[in-house]
Design a protein that fits this description.
Rossmann fold, UDP-galactose 4-epimerase, domain 1, 2 domains, 7-stranded parallel sheet, 3-stranded mixed sheet, 12 helices, NAD(P)-bd_dom_sf
């Protein structure tokens, strides 16, 4: 397939592009800079210049493709309304372009805030509805297009997609540990995150694009629940720092923006996804990556 990918030079997207090319797909990547364009070309992908605000460019990329994978997001933590609007506008533009074609449209989604007190299941619907909700309610918006002849697949990524070079949530926790001289968890450290190795994540994206039924919610998850205390202990062991508990009220000052997420239960099951795609994770675990120096 000729696959149009947004976010194809990001942490997850670059692995997805590599895997798609390796498995015989043609890739066209959206690139907003010369550096991104060069990176895509070096991977053997075609380049479409533009960004998330260039809706005409996004529409053209989707129109010319056999399938679309939308991974880009502004992630503007200082202005979440702008990120939410850009996400919703991009998803709506892509979906409108694909109406009646039955072409695959896979979009990235998260696991934060879906349920509390148990692992999130693929059958759990997102409570984010409408333009003012998390990520602009993009997952629910996209799934409305199943009835309009678009093969929509939601890819719900674990909060930690880890590996050498990861600059996401765990990297922020490592930075906080170095800054304060202690590796901390919040409260009793019982909150837990799902996790997946970056290369496993790329494989699930490709398998889902090729074979997941329309309307599927895929959980790109290898480990269902790694407690925040286990994460902090691994960081402390690797850095040679003491491990401490901090009160929830002090978490924001200690961790920065990531405190909100480190205090949430974002565990998730991927049993249905594994069965549907005949997928078994093969990458290293999150703790193994931390101890091996992936965040050095």
């Amino acid at each position: 397939m000729n696959v149009f990918v947004t976010g194809g030079t990001g942490w997850i997207g670059s692995a997805v592009v590599d895997h798609l090319v390796e498995t015989g797909h043609q890739v066209t990547g959206l690139a907003r800079s010369d550096a991104s364009a060069t990176a895509l070309e070096q991977k053997g992908a075609r380049v479409l210049r533009g960004d998330l605000d260039d809706l005409e460019g996004i529409r053209a990329g989707a129109s010319d493709a056999d399938a679309v994978i939308h991974l880009a997001n502004k992630h503007d933590w200082g202005n979440p309304a702008a990120s939410n609007k850009a996400e919703r506008d991009a998803v709506e533009t892509i979906a409108d372009t694909l109406v009646g074609t039955n072409r695959p449209f896979m979009l990235a989604a998260g696991l934060s805030g879906l349920v509390e007190g148990r692992p999130t299941l693929e059958s759990d619907t997102s409570p984010a509805v409408g333009p003012d909700s998390h990520r602009g309610g993009a997952e629910n918006l996209a799934l409305e297009y199943v009835q309009k002849g678009v093969r929509v697949v939601s890819a719900r990524f674990a909060p930690s997609v880890h590996g050498v070079g990861d600059h996401g949530f765990v990297a922020q926790l490592v930075s906080a540990a170095r800054r304060h001289g202690v590796s901390a968890y919040i409260g009793d450290g019982a909150k837990a995150w799902a996790a997946v190795h970056r290369l496993d994540a790329a494989k699930v994206v490709r398998l889902g694009l090729e074979g997941a039924p329309s309307g599927s919610r895929l959980h790109i998850v290898a480990e269902e629940a790694v407690t925040t205390r286990e994460i902090a202990e691994a960081i402390g062991q690797h850095l040679g720092l003491p491990v401490v508990s901090i009160e929830p009220g002090d978490a924001g000052e200690h961790f920065g923006f990531v405190a909100r997420f480190f205090g949430m239960d974002m565990s998730a099951s991927s049993a249905r996804t594994r069965e549907l795609l005949t997928w078994t994770p093969s990458g290293t675990t999150l703790v193994e990556d931390i101890l091996a120096g992936a965040y050095a």
